[in-house]
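Subject: sequence -> structure tokens, single chain

Hey, anyone have a minute? Need the predicted structure for the following. Not urgent.
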Amino acid sequence: MGLFDDVLKDSETLFKDELALDFEYQPKLLKFREDEQFQIASSIKPMFQKHNGKNVLIIGKPGIGKTVATKHILTEIEQETNDIIPIYVNCWQKDTPFKIILSICESIGYRFTQNKNTDELLTEISRILNKRSSVIVLDEIDKIQDHQILYSFLEDLYRKSIVLITNNKDFLSALDQRILSRLIPETIEFNPYSKEETYEILKHRSSLAFYPNVLSEDALKLIADKSFEMKDVRTGLFLLRESGTIAEQKLKKKIDLEDSEKAIEKLVDFKIKNSSLLAEDQNKVLDLIKENTGKTTKEIHQIIEPSISYRTFFRKLKDLEEASLISLTEENKGEGKKTIVNFGSVKKLDEFN
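Reply:
Had a minute. Here:
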């Protein structure tokens, strides 16, 4: 054996398909969500006979397969029939009726959007969608600023199934009774993966991402344990990618326990949601926090006052905290209770996932 046989050469890589570690990647086999997918599909099936579908509310914590499972259903619809139009909108960024409508226009190829307002565009997409059936998935539905768009969909679309995805179990209680009485959704709850399921999911993804025998069992087990501890498979995907990158930087042909330990240290910089997905005003608040991390909520709000009320500002902070982009910590010191804002925190990641 040569002294440099275990050194990665210039043209070599540990990654067979790095895209398999992306959060949005859809593996052909979606493990441990078969029951939930069957429930979603059952609500949509009537539309294959040109009947109205059922509406669905999907609830569960981040990083446990809600979005991927639902997108699998949309892909299957696309492959099975041209009579049902599948549409997906993430309301984290498309958080107003106008943005949602524009996103749908883009999905269905309607380009004549210039100089048209929300109602005019809604009329146009309703005309197009009502020629067939439609499944409209609104992910992170709790982030929209105006629920009226739901009423419009429920009233204006004929054969449809509205699928709402949220982390907030109490979302329905925030809806107007007129919307709720028309929506009447089937509720499907996604429970967190067990420790064994987390391990099997990450093992499967690593087999797609890395060449055979690259990832050591010790490294995989540590990553799976950490992902289970944080109740978010996306954490495990991040750690797999980071471990591979660390090993490559060391010119190693195998990812070992030391590489996964180094990757875990980098969780302090890990953000579950990429800030590029945020709405413009949320990004402004996030940038402000980056520059003023460690200050109180009131101190940071004073910098942008009066452009945004304190109540609205605090709501945006809670959204950023839920997305694991910042952490909020209450402190009791002499002058009373204060809330300290910090940019990113491992400590908070496992509290909110």
